[in-house]
Amino acid sequence: MTARKRILIFIDWFTPGYKAGGPISSNANLIDHLSEEFEFYVITRDTDFLESKSYPQIVSNQWNTMKNGAKVYYVSADRLSFRTLIQISGQVSFDVVLVNGIYSLYFSLFPLLWFKYLAKKRLIISSRGMLSDQTFSSKKGKKKTYYALARFFNLYKGIVIHATNDEEVSQIRKNLGFKGEIKVASNLPPKKEYYLTEIQKTINEVRLVSIARISPEKNTLFALRVLEELAISGKQSFTAVRIIFDLYGSIYDQAYWNECKAVVESLPANVMVSFCGPVEKEKVHETLLTYHFLFMPTRGENYGHSVVECFMAGRPVIISDRTPWKNLEMIQNSKFNGIGWDLPLEKPGRFAEVIEYCAAMGQEEYDAMSRNAYQYAQQVIEDSSVIEATRKLFI
Asked: Quick one: DSSP state of residue 105?
């Protein structure tokens, strides 16, 4: 029997963490789908994002074996150093190094330099959207400086970069000046099976949810201002409409959150917004089942795990047109069109119109959209070409 290839993964935060969002899901799903073909070893922190206490269910500073067979080394903050990472990686014989992200000193830059110039192992850099145009919405100056230095020193020459779609490829070429090999493989959905669960949809009432960090990139403030505009410009009968919008996620920027709160406080009593904090990955599905629509006008996603989770739960979405999920109104499996809306951020009024439309929606139309979303999710899950493209990253 041919020995399975061994993949060593570097990532700042990993399961059972969930507060760092998409990259955790991307790597966990990848391992779940490919664990029978490859052996996976993961080096990560022993805390979740923005936390100082280690996970209670793991043992720090040694290899832990996951249910899917992956080995994970959780490094504590007091032991985290270049020397420690060299020692840990030296304990394992491996074929490929997968580095997640671009800017992390210990989990992106160190493995890039160490395995390219000294240990000389085959490297794959998964940018996780960090080389896209949307990254300039925060720390713009530092990131431009990094890009310039990376180009000057040919930092990524001879390395394979993983992108999730063709648009990300073009942005990597432009922002990094990268002329080398880019392999395209979409992120993988959860390896889970769910049943379609119905929810009551009363006319003139809608339950909206966002599962994303509270940040400019996710456009939380934009979403709240859409509700504010809807309340101001709505028809006289708008007072009879009940809108619930619950926000699940970590707060990255307190000043930004203060802006958000100011809008929330200006909303009328029939538009209720609540901040519910981060939600554990294992509870995302059951949380989504209590809402009608995902409302996330993000500035950009290279995948959008919460969007896919919504489809798997049979819940339509209201998102921007800056994700891979396009033409949602045209996806039809019944007499009612669509599994949601992907709208341009340049037209916030369209978001308001759609939410007003969703509030007025009755049970029959909503159930049809819900079935459409669920059936579409099955197509996404069963797409073997995505698994094959991911597999080819490592062969």
From this structure: I
